[in-house]
Amino acid sequence: MKVLSKAATIASMRAACAFATLLTVAMSGCSLVNPPSPLRPPLPANGCQPASVVKYNQAGIGYYKVRQLEAAKAEFLMAVAEGPKCAEAHYNLGNTLWYLGEKEEARTHLLKAADLAPGNAVIWDSPVLRPYGEPQKDTKKKKETASEQAPGAFGNRGRLGGY
What we know:
Strand content: under 5%
Order of helices and strands: HHHHHHH
Number of helices: 7
Largest sheet: none
Number of strands: 0
Structural class: mainly alpha
Shape: elongated
Distance between the termini: 112 Å
Radius of gyration: 30 Å
């Protein structure tokens, strides 16, 4: 009877080991089949002042590119603190916050970047900024039809008295 119980124990241990191996392969295979989504490219802040803004922004870009987003966030926060009018630093911070799941704070910095750089197509056309509206969308007034422009024209006269 002891021999049978040892055999059963060995069989169950082999099954557990095989299951663990299968689970490990499946989990590692999933990361190979489904790699993490690419990050939006960061922007250099070469024209920003003071020079420390450029330094912090470059350090943040280095961390961002290797997906060390918390470290990137810290560097971009220092860049924004040193140069609050640097659109690129706000943009990079906004993207980093977006990928960290801090959507409301990301929104603040992305909109600030768009306000500071009205002609920067990379910032304005960013997919990360799209959920907050299309700031460049042309809001021209709808053209009125001829009958709306002149209510009494084209048979639209207000016929008071019913003639």
